Please model this.
Amino acid sequence: MKINIESLQVTSVETAETALNELPKVTLVEVIGDIDTNTAPLVQEQILPLAQAETRMIIEMTKVPYMSSAGLRVLLSLYRQISAQGGQIVLVGLSEEIQDTMSITGFLDFFQTRDTRDQALEALKVKVQVTST
Model:
């Protein structure tokens, strides 16, 4: 299990009149490997603290071949925390198996999903300049 975290500096927000110094950042989290009973606590420990007020987060899951119910619980906790603080979350690159599981369990109703990072950025209505963190 590996988790990469990047901060993307927003350069403009569609449909919002926001001063340059008030532009939100987009947090990009790439998860690599299975999310199961053994790895879900690590995912929660590293990602949940990133869910601050008005967080805009993209979770790249292209390299997650399997997710157990423990992983679904982590995603739901993250969704609740971000939504309660006025933020947005987009899941990217869900495998067909994970999409099916999330659909059957009703979890898919809570999340925006996209196939690519660019589509996720469009869903968040932002333009970004990549910066290192």
In short: The domain at 2-131 is CATH 3.30.750.24 (Transcription Regulator spoIIAA).
